[in-house]
Amino acid sequence: MSLQTLFRETLFNSETLLGRVLELVLLVCILASVLESLLDSVPTLHQDYQAFFGWSEYGFTFLFTLEYGLRLGTAERPFRYALSFFGLIDLVAILPSFLGLFVIGFPSLSVFRALRFLRIFRILKLLRFSEEAKELLVSLKSSFRKITVFLGFVLILTVIIGSLMYFVEGSEHGFSSIPQSVYWTIVTMTTVGYGDIAPQTALGKLLASAVMLLGYGIIAVPTGAIVQGLSQSRLGFGPPSLGHCCPNCRASGHDADANHCKYCGTLLGQESGLPGGDR
Amino acid sequence: MSLQTLFRETLFNSETLLGRVLELVLLVCILASVLESLLDSVPTLHQDYQAFFGWSEYGFTFLFTLEYGLRLGTAERPFRYALSFFGLIDLVAILPSFLGLFVIGFPSLSVFRALRFLRIFRILKLLRFSEEAKELLVSLKSSFRKITVFLGFVLILTVIIGSLMYFVEGSEHGFSSIPQSVYWTIVTMTTVGYGDIAPQTALGKLLASAVMLLGYGIIAVPTGAIVQGLSQSRLGFGPPSLGHCCPNCRASGHDADANHCKYCGTLLGQESGLPGGDR
Amino acid sequence: MSLQTLFRETLFNSETLLGRVLELVLLVCILASVLESLLDSVPTLHQDYQAFFGWSEYGFTFLFTLEYGLRLGTAERPFRYALSFFGLIDLVAILPSFLGLFVIGFPSLSVFRALRFLRIFRILKLLRFSEEAKELLVSLKSSFRKITVFLGFVLILTVIIGSLMYFVEGSEHGFSSIPQSVYWTIVTMTTVGYGDIAPQTALGKLLASAVMLLGYGIIAVPTGAIVQGLSQSRLGFGPPSLGHCCPNCRASGHDADANHCKYCGTLLGQESGLPGGDR
Amino acid sequence: MSLQTLFRETLFNSETLLGRVLELVLLVCILASVLESLLDSVPTLHQDYQAFFGWSEYGFTFLFTLEYGLRLGTAERPFRYALSFFGLIDLVAILPSFLGLFVIGFPSLSVFRALRFLRIFRILKLLRFSEEAKELLVSLKSSFRKITVFLGFVLILTVIIGSLMYFVEGSEHGFSSIPQSVYWTIVTMTTVGYGDIAPQTALGKLLASAVMLLGYGIIAVPTGAIVQGLSQSRLGFGPPSLGHCCPNCRASGHDADANHCKYCGTLLGQESGLPGGDR
C-alpha cells in the first residue's frame, strides 16, 4: 500500500483504526476552534486573552490547511473533492484566516466581524461525522416543498394582516410602516412575541388575538403534512423503501422487519437480492 | 385561430410558450408592485423616492388594468370570471389606485393608509401561480371545521380564565378590564407572550403557569386531529391518487392495503396494469 | 299533546321548528349577555352606559331565570336535570345577578369583580349548541391521562431546573425565590417568554438556552402520543367505534364510509342494526 | 413471615393494603417537603416562619432517613438497591440536610442556595409512584436519538445564524458578542422571544423574520419523527398489546390489519378466542 493510499484510507474512511483516531482528533479540533471563535468575540475575553486566541487561531488554521492539502492531494478525483460540499466547507474553514493576514493593517470593526462570521462556518465540518445528520437533511429535503408552500402561504397572510394592522394602529403605536407591521405580524404569528411592538387600540388587540389564534391553530398543518409524508414512506428519517412488496399478492406497506407478507403469508424480500428483514 | 382565442389561450392557459412568458412577466410585476407598496409606506423612503413610487404605481395600475380588461374581454363567460375569486382579486388590485385619483385633493393620513392597505391585496394574485397553494387551501378547508371547533373551545376557555385573572389581579396590575384580561390570556395561551401585561401576585403567577402549561399541552389536539384527517384522506398535500379507483363503481379513496372496493365490494386494482397493493 | 310535553319538546329537542327558533333566540341572548359582561367591565364604558348595562342585565337574568324554571318544570326528571352539567350551568348563569341584589348596599370593588367573574360562566351555556364541542371534550378526555402525565413530568422538570436557576442567578437578577424561578422556567419552557425575568449571567443564559431547546424538542412527545391514540381508535374527534368489523372475516379498521370489507368484500354493518355507512 | 419480609413487602410492593397506606403517607410527605423547600426560599416567608420551616425540615429528614434505612436494611440485595436510580434519589433526598448540619456555622447565601437546590431533588421520589412516568421515560428514550440529532442540527444552525446577526447588527444593538447572538437566535428560533435583545436595523429584522419562520416551520420535523417512531412500535404511552401474538413463533407487534405473522407466516389470531382483526 502506497503512502498516498494510506493517507486516503485514513482521511476518507473512518473504518480503519488510524482513521478513527484521526476523526476524533479532527472532531476535537473543530469544536475547540469554534469555541475559540465564539469566545474571542466577547470583548472582555478578547482583551484579556488576545495573545492566546491569536496563537491558537494560527494553530487551527495550520491544522485545517494541512488537512485540506492532504485531502486534496490524496483524493482520487481532487477536482471533484474541491467542488464537493465538504471540499468547499474545508476551504471556507481556512480562507478567513488567510484573508485576515492581508487586512491586518486596517482592522476595522466591520471587517473584523465579517472575518469572524466566515470563520464560524467551520462548524459545518461537524456534519461529516454524523450519519444521522445526513438522514435528517434528506428528511428535511423531502418535506422541503411542503414546508416552503406552507411558509409562502403564511408570508402572504402576514403581508395582508400586517397592512391591515398598519391601517388600524398607525405609526403612533409603533406600526410605523407596512414592513414594520409585517415584521410584527411574523413575530406574533410564529408565537415568538418580543413585545417591542404591541397593539394599543381595542381594535388592534382584537385583530392581534385573531392573528395569535390563527398562528396557534395552523401550526398543526405542516406537522400533519410531514407526518403524512413520513408515514407514506413508512420510514422515519431513512431513505425511501425500494419496492418491498409481496412476490405473491404484490401487497406493500409491510414493516421493515417483516419476513412474511401480512396478508397472504408468502415469504418476502427475495426479489431485490437483499432479504427483507435486513433493511 | 381568432385573436380572441389566442389571447384567451395565452391568459388562461399557461401550457403554451407565450402563456408561460406572460405568466413570468406577470409574476415579476406582482412581486415588484407589492414590494413598491411595502417600501412606499416607509416614511423616509416615501420622502426620498416620491416621484419614482408615484410613476411606478401608475405603470403597475396601467398593466393590471390592461390584464383585467383582456381577461374580461376574452373570457368565455365574462360575467362568471368577474364574479370568480380571481376575477374579484384582479379588480381589487386596480380599484385602490383609481380611488386614489378621486381623493387626491384631500390626502389625509387615514385615507392614504386605507388605500395602501387595499393595494396590498395584489399579493393574492400570486395564488394563481401555485398549484400547491390551491392544494394547501383544500387541505386547510378539510380541517377547517376541526380547527374552528378547537379555536372556539380555546376562546371559551380564554374568556373564563381571563375573567378569573381580572378577579385575581385587578386593574392595579394591568388587568384593567375583562376584555384586556382575555387578551392577556390569548397572548399567554398561544405561547406568544409579549410581556406588556404580566401577573404580579403569587396567585396570579400560579394561575398563569397553569394557563401556559394548558396552552403547551393542548396544542397537540388539533395537530392530532389534522394528522388523523389527512391520514384518512390519504392525501397529504400531494395530488390525489389517480389510478387506484374501483373498476366497477369508479370510487376512489381506498386505503393502500384494500383488496376490495369499500363501497361495492368489487376486487380492486387490476385495471391500470399495476396491482392495487403496489401504490 | 299536553302543554308540558310541548314545552319539553321545544326546550330539550331542537329537531322541531319551534325548538330551532328558540335555540337561535337563546344563542343570541347568551352571546349578547356575555358581550355585555365583557364590555361592562371596561371602566370608561361602565361610566357612560351604566343604565343601559344595568337594565339589559336585568333583562337577561329574567330570560335565563324563565328558561331555567321552564326546563326544571317540564323536565321528565327535574332533580336529575338540576344536578346535570347543563342544569348547574343554567343555575350558575342566574345566581350572580340575584346575589348582586343582596350586596347592592356595599358594592366594594372586590365583590363587584367576583360577581362579574361568576356571570361570565354563562358562556358555558354555548356548549349545549355544539355537537362538535362535545366530541372535542370526549377527545380531550381520552387523551387527558397522557397530557396529565406529560404535564406532571414537565412540572417535575421545571421545579428542578427552577431551583438550579435560583442557585445560578440568585435574587440579584430577578430570581428572588425558587417559586419565582419555577415560574420563569415554565414561562420559558412553554416558549411563552414574557421577558419580565431573564437570565443575566453567562452560565444562566447557557442554562436558559438548554431549557428552551428542551421545551422546543419535547413538545413533540404529547403530540405523538395523541396522534397515536387517535390513529388507534381510527376516529378523529368522534366517539369510539363499537365493533364495526367484517361479519365474514372479522377484520376491523374500515373507514367510516365503507360499505364493504376492504379485505374480503363482504357487505359491512348489518350486525348492530345500523348500516356501516351511516356512522 | 419474618418482620424483615413484612417490611420489604410493605416498602417495595404496593399491592398489599399496608403497602398502599405507606405509599400514600410517603406521597404526602414528599409533596409537603417539596412545598416546604419552595416556600422556605421566599425571603418574606423565610423570615416569618423560620422556626416552623426548620422543625418541619428536621421532621422530613428524619422520616426519609428512616425510609432509606428500612429500604436498605430489608432489600434483598442492599448494595444493588443503594446503587439503583431510586436508591440514589433516596440518598440525595437526605444528604443536603445532613450537609447543612456541618456548614451551619457559616451559612453564606451561596451555600444556603446550593443546599436548597439539592434538597429539591426529593421531587424525583415522586417518579416511583407513577407507572405512566416510567412509560413516558421509555417513550422519551426511544425518541431520544432523533430529538438529539434534531437539536444538534438546530444548534449548528443557531451558531451560524447567530454569527450572521452579530455581523449584521453589531454590539450597538445588543448583539455584543457571538455567544450573545447565538443566545438571541435560540430565544427566537424556539419561539420563546423574551424581547430583551431585538434587532433594530431593517436587514436584522428581515433576517429575524426568516429565523422565526424557520423555527415555526421545522418544529414539525421532530413531531413527525416521533409520531412515526410511536406508530412503528405501536405503543404510544399505553401498555404493550398482550394477546395478539403469533401462535407459532410468539412474536408480537403485528399490525392491526395483519392476517399472517410477519416473521414466520403463520395465520394469526385464533388462539385467544378473538380473531386477529378484532383488536
Range of strand content of chain A: under 5%
Assembly level: homotetramer
Record field, number of beta strands of chain A: 0
- Report the end-to-end length of chain A measured between terminal Cα atoms: 34 Å
Shape of chain A: flat
How much is the average pLDDT of chain A?
A: 78
Given the helix and strand composition of chain A, which structural class is it?
mainly alpha
Helix content of chain A: 55-70%
Q: Report the uncertain regions of chain A.
A: 233-245, 269-279
| Secondary-structure element pattern of chain A, one letter each | HHHHHHHHHHHH
Largest interface: A-D, 72 and 63 residues
Q: Report the sheet with the most strands of chain A, covering strand number, pairing sense and barrel closure.
A: none
Number of H- or I-type helical stretches of chain A: 12
Q: Could you tell me the radius of gyration of chain A in angstroms?
A: 27 Å
What's the quick description here?
Chain A has helices spanning about 5-10, 15-40, 45-50, 50-75, 80-85, 85-100, 110-120, 130-140, 145-170, 180-190, 200-220, 220-235.
